[in-house]
Amino acid sequence: MAEVQPALIALDLDGTLLNSQGRIRADSLETLGQARAAGIEIMLVTGRHHIMARPFHQQLPGLPAICCNGASLYDFAEQRALAASPLAPALAQELADWCESHHLHVLVYIDDAMIAAAINAHITGLQAWAAQLPRSIAPEISIASPQSAIRQASCIWKIVASHADPAVLRVAMAHMPLALQKQLSSEWSWHNRVDMVAAGNSKGERLARYCASRGIAAARVMAFGDQQNDLSMLGWAGMGVAMGNAQSVVKTRAWRVTGSNDEGGIAMLLRSVLAGV
Length: 277
Fold this sequence. Notes:
Elements: E1 8-11, H1 13-17, H2 26-37, E2 41-44, H3 50-59, E3 65-67, E4 72-75, E5 80-84, H4 89-101, E6 105-110, E7 113-116, H5 121-131, E8 141-143, H6 146-152, E9 156-162, H7 166-174, H8 178-181, E10 184-190, E11 193-198, H9 203-214, E12 221-225, H10 231-236, E13 239-242, H11 248-253, E14 256-257, H12 265-275
Parallel strand pairs: 1-2, 1-12, 7-8, 12-13, 13-14
Antiparallel strand pairs: 3-4, 4-5, 6-7, 6-9, 9-11, 10-11
């Protein structure tokens, strides 16, 4: 049980709020609805582009969402970023070139679209998911030159580097030039994917800024996550919760560990929290 009642619950999406089928469980929606009725605010904090987070925000509307690992605080009602720290175009071009020189797959998050250098398993899965959505909210995921997309973009939110063999990606990241590393915040978001945003961005940093603007203390924030890009958020929040399916390093740094995203881990913990409200 939480020592204090949370004022805000921050939720990662993939591997956390979403089950293995990419859906929000009914018991999660029910308990989060009960939390909201008890006066607790709900916020999505994700590595996803806002176009990929929109369908889930419609199920849990309200607060703006932190997207792209903290690169933007996006207001879906106003359809704009309230705060943003995108990649500089020259830096994004250098990074895309570096990824391609190391034979890494490149996925660029720009404006209101996602541009992939080529089809891979990740992109195929995203496109299949998007095809099931209504046209009005289906995200645009295109196959094109990342460099061309960067030149034409107003905002470059994030670049994702991946490789079918995680070992290849680890070696490449270990040999990234120091001058390039210093300009980036690079975090693993899956076993074979690294998200790269402008230095200083993270889920925890953006969440801390948002809560400070609202007068919400870290001790009153409960955050749920499962991957390394959630560590900054779980470490900042007074109640950082790792999912049962989380990586070991995430579990060791969490305040609590709950059930997995397929076992109703969020509902499991929130029921005990709400019982003490």
